[in-house]
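TICKET: design request
STATUS: open
ATTACHED STRUCTURE:
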């Protein structure tokens, strides 16, 4: 048990982390935010490669879940500012270490920088030739994922985002429970695998998935392959665009992520461990 921190120690650590984040210079937040977006996007694209030719939905999600967690592992071990994890800053707000304005400012900056990093990976992958795998099936699969995400109803996307960030923030709290690197990897791996297998929505991951799908839709070969493999017509793909990316998915999923991480985990965990 010497390798484990108590729940009270985890709580205190995140309250202190909130104060550090609120006082981090914007230049450093910029770099760490972009890196976090890159790391999550790399996990996302790797999981797509691993699962794109698997027809069984459950098995495909399991394979994706085994690969995707590498993104958060890199953030935990190397460093980075991730929007979904930073929702735990509410613990610092309710402890009066920072103000709600501090939290909102950091979240807005990190959101933008995560988007830049994740979208940059989508552009690089689009030009890497990777989507030609399996005779263009990976490109078609990339569009299929993105199209499915922009078609989720608002409330469903919000709830899915809430459930997702409960798991992400629990994973981060669990990583604070252990003191060694191997323990942190295992602590992060299982909750993140579970959210991917469950099909829940993560706004930063979607900053890669949906732009990647939009970019893939510009390639006639992938469009034809999507029709052949999934019955997705060119007309259906008209619903996959930058407007539906932000309005149909990113807004409700982000709101759900904030509620799940800040309220369902951060606030409740703080109240559970606070002194009288």
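STATUS: resolved
RESOLUTION: sequence designed for all positions
ATTACHED SEQUENCE:
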């Amino acid at each position: 048990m010497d390798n484990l921190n108590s729940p009270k120690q985890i709580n205190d650590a995140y309250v202190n982390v909130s104060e550090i984040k609120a006082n981090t210079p914007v230049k450093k937040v910029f770099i760490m935010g972009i890196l976090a977006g890159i790391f999550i996007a790399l996990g996302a694209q790797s999981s797509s490669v691993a699962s794109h030719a698997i027809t069984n939905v459950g098995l495909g999600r399991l394979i994706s879940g085994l690969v995707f967690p590498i993104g958060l592992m890199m953030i935990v071990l190397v460093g980075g500012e991730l929007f979904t994890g930073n929702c735990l800053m509410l613990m610092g707000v309710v402890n009066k270490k920072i103000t709600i304005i501090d939290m909102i400012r950091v979240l807005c900056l990190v959101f933008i920088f995560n988007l830049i990093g994740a979208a940059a990976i989508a552009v690089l992958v689009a030009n890497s030739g990777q989507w030609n795998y399996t005779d263009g099936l990976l490109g078609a699969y990339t569009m299929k994922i993105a199209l499915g995400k922009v078609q989720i109803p608002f409330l469903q996307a919000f709830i899915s985002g809430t459930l997702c960030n409960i798991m992400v923030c629990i994973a981060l709290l669990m990583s604070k429970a252990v003191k060694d690197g191997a323990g942190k990897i295992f602590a992060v791996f299982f909750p993140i695998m579970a959210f991917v297998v469950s099909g829940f929505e993560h706004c930063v991951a979607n900053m890669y998935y949906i732009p990647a799908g939009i970019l893939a839709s510009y390639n006639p070969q992938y469009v034809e392959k999507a029709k052949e493999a999934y019955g997705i017509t060119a007309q259906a793909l008209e619903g996959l665009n930058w407007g539906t990316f932000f309005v149909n998915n990113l807004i409700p999923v982000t709101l759900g992520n904030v509620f799940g991480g800040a309220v369902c985990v951060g606030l409740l965990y703080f109240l559970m461990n606070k002194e009288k």
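CLOSING REMARK: The chain has one domain: 7-273. Residues 7-273 form a domain with the Glycerol uptake facilitator protein fold (CATH 1.20.1080.10).
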